[in-house]
Amino acid sequence: MPCPKITDPDLSLEDLMAEWPQTVSVFLRHNMLCVGCIIAPFHTVTDACREYHLNQDAFMYELLDAARLV
């Protein structure tokens, strides 16, 4: 199985946080309930940003920064 890409629009939040656990702090900083949520296996970054009214590009940059990919 190929290594997931953090920018994959179909990557679930559960898989994102499992592969890059350092991104959990970004979700917590934004007071998002995604960490440990039963919907995390089905939601993507796009879904979460829509739900929490966040700018997706800015949020993705924070995730990339936390994962040390920028």
TrEMBL record:
<protein>
    <submittedName>
        <fullName>DUF1858 domain-containing protein</fullName>
    </submittedName>
</protein>
<dbReference type="InterPro" id="IPR038062">
    <property type="entry name" value="ScdA-like_N_sf"/>
</dbReference>
<dbReference type="InterPro" id="IPR023883">
    <property type="entry name" value="CHP03980_redox-disulphide"/>
</dbReference>
